[in-house]
């Protein structure tokens, strides 16, 4: 909120950078925006006036909403005023001086927004379930926010990232959240198209355009009119097709093969690649002009190994999803599996995680999925000198339980008595350490029920 002219200039610069901007001219307007907005807010307050009444109002508003991270924008002369300096120091995430540097403003706003997320009562202010995506880590929260922002505009988007990180899912989510959501969403894998058919697949053909073209065919671009076209593995598109695609992106017209008549098409193009297009440009296999045309907005989903905190959530999500498809006695993952999943490097990212969970659900003949069901190597015992106190405790606990179970012929009740813990605690510890027990040795295990 703040001074009209500066406010509108800043709002325009931020809107251009795809921020969702609301402009409040005074404290009342700011309050009503805050009350009405259910999602996290990050705010800029323009302090153009050192009037103590105004400063008090501003302080009152800030006091009422400590969850909002605020950036101050001030005229350098206002910084001479002790009260302004104190207010900024006590209540603001950072400050910027006029004239505003829009790049710096954006960076600080990003950082302030992340801070807002941390203090948000809801861990997911941007609803991942609306996007069909799982994962609550800060990096995914930031991705969801970008998807919502990018969905509102109509520019091309380039989604880059490793295989299996969710590039196609992101394209789908952008479409579903965009004004084009009622139009078609079509995806095509540029690497999977036979070279002789690409032109016709993308742009269509007229009857008789080539041997075998018995009738007119609309290409996928034309069939996507009013919707979103997702070009997967764009790096594999042959150079001549890159020229045609660039022409289409520049004037929104297509020529069907065998026709000189141009057809106007309204399509938003999203493209994805797992290869480095900049390197491809250097090698002469990708056109630089097409790269710049596609790369208006870029999104890069992180590899799974860079957001390990999401692994358990995603594994449980798919476990529940597949459990409803097929009756199974498996109840979840044991602690060792969860630990190993967290440690695995996931070269195939989420696709690999889904496949391992599905495989484990088939392979598992116990109540809880073990590392071998997932095809993951069991943890090596840490070598001498590398054991932390916690690991040493774990190892001692594990070996005491194993020994007691063996002594008591796997009768959990007897072992629990011997170890002086409740049966429920012993079951929990058995699961935690991934200790194998022969099936049927304990009545509870044989029935597969929770103790
Ligand atoms: N955040 C996510 N939440 C839930 N499922 C996801 C998520 N990201 C990806 N997936 C699932 O993982 C699988 C792989 O995703 P997707 O095909 O979108 O990856 P990709 O990056 O396009 O892979 P490729 O480069 O190999 O084409 C799909 O089954 C997808 O539904």
Brief overview, please?
Residues 133-362 form the Sigma-54 factor interaction domain. With 451 residues, this protein is an alpha/beta fold.
Question: Which CATH class of the largest domain?
Answer: Alpha Beta
N- to C-terminal distance: 58 Å
Largest sheet: 5 strands, parallel
Number of helices: 21
Pfam families: AAA_lid_14 (PF25601), Sigma54_activat (PF00158), VpsR (PF20161)
Protein name: Sigma-54-dependent Fis family transcriptional regulator
Keywords: ATP-binding, Nucleotide-binding, Transcription, Transcription regulation
Domain Sigma-54 factor interaction: 133-362
Structure description:
The protein is of the alpha/beta class. The protein has four domains: 4-119, 3-Layer(aba) Sandwich (Rossmann fold); 131-299, P-loop containing nucleotide triphosphate hydrolases (Rossmann fold, 3-Layer(aba) Sandwich), CATH 3.40.50; 307-379, Orthogonal Bundle (Helicase, Ruva Protein, domain 3); 384-451, Arc Repressor Mutant, subunit A. The chain has helices at 4-16, 27-36, 52-64, 82-91, 102-119, 128-131, 138-152, 167-177, 198-203, 220-223, 239-251, 277-282, 288-294, 311-325, 335-343, 349-363, 371-374, 389-407, 412-419, 423-432, 443-447; strands spanning 42-47, 69-74, 94-97, 157-160, 185-189, 204-205, 217-218, 228-232, 253-255, 262-264, 268-273, 297-299, 332-333, 368-369. Helix 4 (82-91) links the parallel strand 2 (69-74) and strand 3 (94-97). The longest helix is centred in the last third of the chain and has 19 residues, at 389-407. The structure holds adenosine-5'-triphosphate. Residues 133-135, 161, 163-169, 232, 272, 274, 350-351, 354 line the site of adenosine-5'-triphosphate.
């Amino acid at each position: 909120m703040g001074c009209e002219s500066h406010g509108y200039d800043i709002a325009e610069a931020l809107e251009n950078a795809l921020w969702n901007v609301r402009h409040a001219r005074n404290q009342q307007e700011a309050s009503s925006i805050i009350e009405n907005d259910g999602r996290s807010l990050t705010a800029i307050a323009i302090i153009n006036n050192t009037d103590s009444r105004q400063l008090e109002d501003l302080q009152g508003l800030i006091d009422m909403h400590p969850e909002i991270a605020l950036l101050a924008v001030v005229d350098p002369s206002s910084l001479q005023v002790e009260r302004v300096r104190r207010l900024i120091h006590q209540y603001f995430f950072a400050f910027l001086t006029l004239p505003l540097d829009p790049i710096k403003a954006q960076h600080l706003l990003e950082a302030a927004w992340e801070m807002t997320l941390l203090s948000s009562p809801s861990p997911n202010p941007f609803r991942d379930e609306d996007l069909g995506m799982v994962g609550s880590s800060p990096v995914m929260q930031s991705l969801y926010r970008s998807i919502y922002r990018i969905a509102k505009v109509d520019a091309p988007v380039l989604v880059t990232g490793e295989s299996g990180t969710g590039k196609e899912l992101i394209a789908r989510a952008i479409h579903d959240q965009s004004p084009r959501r009622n139009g078609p969403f079509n995806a095509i894998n540029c690497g999977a198209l036979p070279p002789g058919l690409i032109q016709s697949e993308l742009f269509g053909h007229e009857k008789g355009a080539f041997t075998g073209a018995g009738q007119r065919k609309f290409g996928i671009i034309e069939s996507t009119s009013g919707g979103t076209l997702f070009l997967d593995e764009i790096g594999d598109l042959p150079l001549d097709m890159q020229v045609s695609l660039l022409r289409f992106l520049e004037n929104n017209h297509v020529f069907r093969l065998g026709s000189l008549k141009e057809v106007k098409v309204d399509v938003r193009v999203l493209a994805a690649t797992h290869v480095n297009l900049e390197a491809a440009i250097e090698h002469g296999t990708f056109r630089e002009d097409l790269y710049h045309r596609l790369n208006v907005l870029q999104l890069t989903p992180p590899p799974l190994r860079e957001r390990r905190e999401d692994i358990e959530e995603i594994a449980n999500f798919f476990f529940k999803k597949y459990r409803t498809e097929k009756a199974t006695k498996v109840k979840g993952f044991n602690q060792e599996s969860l630990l190993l999943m967290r440690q695995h490097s996931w070269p195939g990212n989420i696709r690999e995680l889904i496949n391992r969970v599905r495989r484990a659900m088939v392979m598992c003949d116990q109540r809880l999925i073990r590392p071998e069901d997932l095809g993951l190597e069991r943890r090596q015992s840490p070598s001498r000198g590398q054991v932390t106190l916690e690991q040493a405790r774990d190892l001692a606990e594990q070996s005491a339980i194993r020994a007691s179970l063996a002594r008591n012929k796997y009768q959990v009740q007897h072992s629990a008595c011997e170890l002086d813990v409740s049966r429920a605690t012993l079951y929990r510890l058995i699961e935690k350490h991934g200790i194998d027990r022969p099936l049927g040795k304990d009545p509870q295990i044989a029935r597969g029920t929770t103790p």
